[in-house]
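Here is one chain, start to finish.
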Amino acid sequence: MNAPRTRVQRRPVHGVLLLDKPLGFSSNDALQKAKWLLRAEKAGHTGTLDPLATGVLPLCFGAATKFSQLQLDAPKTYEAIARLGVTTTTGDAEGEVLRECAVDAAMLAPERLAQVQRQFTGPIRQVPPMYSALKKDGKALYEYARAGVEVERAARDVEIHALNVALALDGQAQPAIKIIVTCSKGTYIRTLGEDIGAALGCGAHLTFLRRIDTGGLGIERCVKLADFEAMDEAERLACLLPPEALLAGHRHVTLGGEDAGRFLSGLRRRGSWPDAPAVAVFGDAPRALLGVAHTAAGELIPDRLLSPIEIQQILESTPATVAAGILETP
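Its structure:
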């Protein structure tokens, strides 16, 4: 007989894990693994990263899940290698070859690369790939693609904030370009590689893709999943950033005891604050994140709030407050 499975005792965990997602894992695979290792009750990620891509994947736990949408909307930076002269059904190395084309030196002249770089910088339009999770009539496009059905897709507006295109070689020493791009939400890097290849006149497909930054959270701060798995429980918890790590672009407002309590009840507060669309609100005794808000006409207007029990659990899990034996800001 098989031994009974050990039931994991879940617990409240609050914070952000910056994971360097490994190759071959879906974003949800990585999330579920980290959630199991932390024994966390509630978790979510901040937008999917293809199984064939690696790199920055912020995972949110507990109260931090309330702010995950901010990272979904944040600009992202990628490094990619696109092999030239070969197009595939999927736009990457997993697909079947559609067309092969000779690559000559004129296509790769410095002035030609510079021209293409300018062409794809700024606002551009992309037709989403068939091998994507976008839905048509309740069904993902990749499901149609696997069935051999081509679905008409409307072009979408995206923004390329910064782009660098340079000559490189892929893993098989074939002609390739290295692409470093910072882009808006909704940009498909596979499509960008294909479109740049088409503009060069030889076609291309991605052979490598790595996300190196999302919303100011860089790859240098990330932990690898294998390293995270090898840690003990205390070390894993120490890897978590506080929920406010997702609020780097927010103006900070600190409220005193009575105002903090009323704000947590969902009430607006009046003050001399300038208008601001994104505000992180803290209590001062002890210092603790209360939620996010916006200010308009001298009013602080709540948007997303932590619950009192979430705030208490975060304070109780902060090493400095536990070591002091009291819930005070050190």
